[in-house]
Amino acid sequence: MSTVVGEMDQHDDHHHHAPSGITRWLFTTNHKDIGSMYLWFSFIMFLVGGSMAMVIRAELFQPGLQLVDPHFFNQMTTVHGLIMVFGAVMPAFTGLANWMIPMMIGAPDMALPRMNNWSFWILPFAFAILLASLFMEGGGPAFGWTFYAPLSTTYSSDSTALFVFSVHIMGISSIMGAINVIVTIMNMRAPGMSYMKMPLFVWTWFITAFLLIAVMPVLAGAVTMVLTDKYFGTSFFDAAGGGDPVMFQHIFWFFGHPEVYIMILPSFGIVSAIIPAFSRKRLFGYSSMVYATAAIAGLSFLVWAHHMFTTGMPVFAELFFMYCTMLISVPTGVKVFNWVATMWRGSISFETPMLFALAFVILFTIGGFSGLMLAITPVDFQYHDTYFVVAHFHYVLVSGAIFSIMAAAYYWLPKWTGHMYDEGLAKLHFWASLISVNVLFFPMHFAGLAGMPRRIPDYSVQFADINQIVSIGGFAFGLSQLIFLWLVIKCVKGGKKAPAKPWEGAEGLEWTVPSPAPYHTFDTPPEVK
Amino acid sequence: MAEQKHEKYYVPASSPWPIVGAIGLGLIAFGAGHTVIDMKNETEGWGSNVLLGGIAVILIMLFGWFRDQINESMSGLYSKQLGHSYRQGMAWFIFSEIMFFAAFFGALFYARTIAVEWLGGAGNNAMTNEVLWPGFEAIWPLTETPGGTESGAMGWLGLPLYNTLILIASSFTCHFAHVGLEKGKRKQLTVWLGVTIVLGCIFLYMQGAEYVHAYEELGLTLDSGVYGNTFYMLTGFHGMHVTLGTIMLIVMFFRVLKGHFTPESHFAFQATSWYWHFVDVVWVCLFIFVYIL
């Protein structure tokens, strides 16, 4: 896509090279340090949220109530969702953006490096508060990650205020992170790096950052209204005062639907980098990929009410949201076809990043199709709030977003650490994850179609077999991720030296600098032709 | 940017302030949460102390961070590119603020055109009205809620109208100050900036008087139904933004007195001015949708 000419001065000898000790991490303005902290934080949160999923799957292993009481079960489903969305997937993407975007566009660092550090360090505090609320009297949030009113207002525990304020500061962190990304892309590109030469990861993050800045404040508004309804006597979501609980869902999903694209657009960028690299071909249809991403982002503002077909809307609105939702499959289809066309007659090799990217394309498409089924209003009345929905969004978020993050980690680990990862261990991780993720989530489709509801700690005995299979898949998937942890630690500590460009077909500025990438990548701008 | 070839990049040195800011926000969130919980349960707790501590930490952070920033800027460390980054960052921040207000405007529109109408029996909701809220009439302003809470409604003539004129005028005076700065006319800058600050303070004072009037004479309170909710949340958040904007203007005023800013380089002033215009535009929308219509 882009090649570098001219000289690059990679050694920066003035006042700030990598300092040592704890203050390096506390005071840093370096995009690579901050990126690493984001990635480690997100992985820790992935394990925390994952262990909550293990509690859920252990309880659901058999019908009846065995291990935890229903109120605690509800807290687990709620906090599992919140942590995975805001603590695992989003920070992982921000970490990747921090690491890769400055390198990909030939910038020295992010545009606003101090704010960058601020946005990272808010997160540990936000999640400490959220997790601490679980130990309060009356328990933590138990109303689902979507915190529908009146569950989060009239019927929630005392600790709801802590949930609200922790979401507030998470939002501040995300908005600052997104402003940083968008300004970096607009303002820090090297000479010659025009918009239509940017790698797709940069493009997709550009659009993601716009979505974040547009909708995180709406989430802040929603939690504020929950706070005042619960603690200050307002009645935004209370019919007795002229409000409406359905209004909560409108405001929440106006945030929530763009949010789910925030969690998938950067994946599209990652996969669009990896598939060409291992197919040894240029990406098919670069500009159509850009336009498709923009179209998906634009449509994401017009489809929010497909999450609430059963909650009471005029038929006209149901049809409008149904058709708009189905329209999204067009640009998404463009992307999937482009990835397939990129592989067509390429000389493909199957290193681990490629395996995860391929699994992404197939499994994300399955998740996309079940989304299309859910988009159809009349049939959604059957699927709504069943395990079919759980299967759908885990296909797009786990075997979609998380798999793409894994692919990205394997793809760029050599660049980050200067060592090659252990390919054998990586393949083990891939196959274990691939098989277990399908054992875990595929049967949920059937449970849902047969009528098993979400977020209930008990179920009818007819679902026992399916739930046992699902739980076994869940435990296996959880354990498989420990292989990844082991592999990353091993790779950071040592291993085969990685060349500047370990992947034969890879393109982009990040492969023109040595591995590991120097502390300050570009001191003067590289020139891009 | 493409035209600035081979300019050396500027990356700011590491700084303790971001982590201090994160600690401050953490304390504020934790303290505010506990304060609210204590208020609800009517218990004495340490929440408000943590909250105040957090605010103190944030103030120290702001002071320290801006001091470093101003010193670096005054010693000519910054590049033109960084100036672009700051301006774009501020513009996107204002966009995020617009979306925050959009959530509350959205709530206002939804409550007014859908929720209240449906409770009154519009569309296919005749039975909602008949069975659940018999006798409820859909009117706006909602002076009697379905639950039976009564309140007065805020008119738009008089105080709100004067306030609108004051805030619009302050947008112009702020602009005159900015023009003065760009033309190097320091006196014009100082005077008009001072006038803007005075107008901002008058606005805030009158807004306070309006709240007293609403609470004591109209019986319009934060908990008197969705009309009161949207009224106070929208005007309240707007008032908080005006307060912040006024503080920013006051800081600019003292920096101007100290001789800061040049016609070419005055990001902080420009950002403050943008922010002030933004709160002004929000007010105009408020005046139309909350007061008049």
Task: Give structural notes.
Chain A: It catalyses: 4 Fe(II)-[cytochrome c] + O2 + 8 H(+)(in) = 4 Fe(III)-[cytochrome c] + 2 H2O + 4 H(+)(out). Chain A: It is found in: Cell membrane; Membrane. Chain A: One of its GO terms (cellular component) is plasma membrane. The complex is a heterodimer of chains A (529) and B (293). Chain A has 529 residues and is an all-alpha fold. Chain A has one domain (4-13, 25-211, 260-268, 350-528): Cytochrome c oxidase-like, subunit I domain (Cytochrome C Oxidase, Chain A), CATH 1.20.210. Chain A is built from 15 helices and 2 strands. Chain A is globular, with a radius of gyration of 23 Å. Chain A starts with a strand and ends with a strand. Residues 1-16 of chain A have low confidence and may be disordered. Chain B folds into 2 domains: 13-77, Helix Hairpins (Orthogonal Bundle); 80-292, Cytochrome c oxidase, subunit III, four-helix bundle (Four Helix Bundle (Hemerythrin (Met), subunit A)). Chain B contains 8 helices and no strands. Chain B has helices at residues 17-41, 47-74, 80-119, 126-132, 159-182, 186-218, 225-257, 267-292. Chain B starts with 16 loop residues before the first helix and ends with a helix. The chains are: A mainly alpha (529), B mainly alpha (293). Chains A and B meet through helix 1, helix 4, helix 5, helix 6 and helix 7 of A and helix 1, helix 3 and helix 7 of B.
Helix-and-strand structural type of chain A: mainly alpha
Q: Given the C-alpha coordinates, what overall shape of chain A results?
A: globular
What percent of residues of chain A adopt helix (DSSP H or I)?
Answer: 55-70%
- Inertia-based shape of chain B: globular
| SSE run of chain A | EHHHHHHHHHHHHHHHE
Number of helices of chain B: 8
Output the radius of gyration of chain A.
23 Å
- Low-pLDDT segments of chain A: 1-16
Classify the beta-strand content of chain A into a percent band: under 5%
Full CATH superfamily name of the largest domain in chain B: Cytochrome c oxidase, subunit III, four-helix bundle
Write the CATH architecture name of the largest domain in chain B: Up-down Bundle
Tell me the helix content of chain B: over 70%
Subcellular location (chain B): Cell membrane; Membrane
Organism (chain B): Pseudidiomarina piscicola
Family (chain B): Belongs to the cytochrome c oxidase subunit 3 family.
GO molecular function (chain B): cytochrome-c oxidase activity; oxidoreductase activity
